[in-house]
């Protein structure tokens, strides 16, 4: 009897071992549930990372249709790299990823490899890098250097912005009369100027270049304001000297009333802010504009005063173009320190995913000239503009 009990204990123990062996064997083939924070053990780290949304390479939604003969253009130095990349991201994300236009970068020195590598990686179109000829970024031989130096000292004492800067004067002269003649720019008919540190606040769901072409526009703006009087004391005198000698260049249906309150006797200092502009390069290369620039250049005001390219472009557009050839892009939301253009109209802002604060919109500020543009062209102001005054 004791032997029988011992035999039964052996059988029970064996059965228990078999059961345990079966349990562990089957459980080893069972995959642990992928609870939050865990990963199946048979999935490699590399494969798992490849499935994350950031690495799927979602395709860009490129807009169909023809492209205009157009480019973005930026005047920058190597030290501006991390400011211009912000601008590029805004332009690409809000507009150019859908249209893939080229980008021309101009510099009075050679661009370094880092600048080229980083900016090329960000632009969806082709990038081109050009060096400005020395003769376009220097004092012309007819400028009295002593007189120019004295003016800079006087402006410094008066604390006039950029009043003592030589490079700023070269920049204003270059943007006024030379950028559109650079060899890289000769390939294009239209340009969109982009400066380091700007922002675009709304999606742009149409081709702004094509809009200019289809509607026979030649110059456009988003912000307008009054120029610093101290920087251009004789600009209007030089302009009247030009109109006297070249009356054939003045358009019949011009915008004189935008820039003068007394039919051209004096300048009211209104101008389009040229750090944003979309325009026609053939107009800038025309005899009319080139005669104007040459006349101003020989007057010496870029160096004897501190004439900016904004009033130069603006006066030229106001006098030489018909009113309907100048366009205000209310729908291109834009920031350049210290002013903001935030489109007037809540419905538009919501539809186009704008992230600007309408209370910061400069358009209807007393120092803005945009109301003059609307009145000159008999255009109704956008609904709700009164709330932004």
Automatic annotation (TrEMBL):
GO terms for cellular component: Golgi apparatus; membrane. It comes from the Eukaryota. The keyword Calcium does not apply. Residues 35-54 have a biased composition (Polar residues). The keyword Signal applies. Keywords: Glycosyltransferase, Signal, Transferase. Residues 1-29 form the signal peptide. The active site is at 277 (nucleophile). GO terms for molecular function: alpha-1,2-mannosyltransferase activity. Residues 35-62 are annotated as: Disordered. GO terms for biological process: cell wall mannoprotein biosynthetic process; protein N-linked glycosylation; protein O-linked glycosylation. Belongs to the glycosyltransferase 15 family. This is Glycosyl transferase. It comes from Delitschia confertaspora ATCC 74209.
């Amino acid at each position: 009897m004791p032997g029988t009990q011992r035999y039964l204990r052996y059988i029970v123990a064996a059965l228990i071992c078999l059961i345990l062996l079966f349990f562990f064997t089957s459980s080893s083939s069972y995959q642990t549930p992928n609870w939050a924070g865990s990963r199946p053990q048979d999935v490699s780290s590399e494969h798992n990372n490849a499935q994350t949304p950031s690495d799927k390479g979602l395709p860009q939604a490129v807009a169909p249709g023809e492209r205009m003969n157009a480019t973005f253009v930026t005047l920058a130095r190597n030290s501006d790299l991390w400011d211009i990349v912000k601008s590029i991201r805004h332009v690409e994300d809000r507009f150019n990823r859908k249209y893939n236009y080229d980008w021309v970068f101009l510099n009075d020195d050679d661009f370094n490899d880092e600048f080229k590598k980083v900016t090329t990686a960000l632009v969806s179109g082709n990038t081109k890098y050009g060096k400005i000829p020395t003769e376009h970024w220097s004092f012309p031989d007819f400028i009295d250097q002593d007189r120019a130096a004295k003016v800079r000292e006087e402006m410094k004492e008066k604390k006039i912005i950029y009043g003592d800067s030589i490079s700023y004067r070269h920049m204003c002269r270059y943007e006024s009369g030379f950028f559109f003649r650079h060899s890289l720019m000769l390939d294009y008919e239209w340009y969109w100027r982009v400066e380091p540190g700007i922002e675009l606040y709304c999606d742009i769901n149409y081709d702004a270049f094509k809009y200019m072409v289809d509607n026979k526009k030649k110059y456009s703006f988003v912000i307008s304001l009054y120029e610093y009087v101290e920087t251009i004391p004789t600009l209007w005198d030089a302009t009247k000297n030009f109109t006297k000698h070249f009356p054939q260049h003045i358009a019949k249906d011009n915008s004189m009333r935008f820039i003068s309150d007394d039919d051209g006797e004096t300048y009211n200092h209104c101008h389009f802010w040229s750090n944003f502009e979309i325009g026609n390069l053939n107009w800038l290369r025309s005899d009319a504009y080139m005669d104007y620039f040459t006349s101003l250049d020989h007057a010496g005001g870029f160096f004897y005063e501190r004439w900016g390219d904004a009033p130069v472009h603006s006066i030229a557009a106001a006098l030489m173009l018909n009113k309907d050839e100048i366009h205000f892009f209310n729908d291109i939301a834009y920031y350049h320190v210290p002013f903001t253009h935030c489109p007037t109209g809540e419905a538009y802002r919501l539809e186009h995913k704008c992230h600007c604060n309408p209370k910061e919109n400069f358009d209807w500020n007393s120092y803005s000239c945009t109301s003059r543009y609307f009145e000159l062209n008999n255009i109704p102001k956008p609904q709700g503009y009164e709330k932004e005054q």
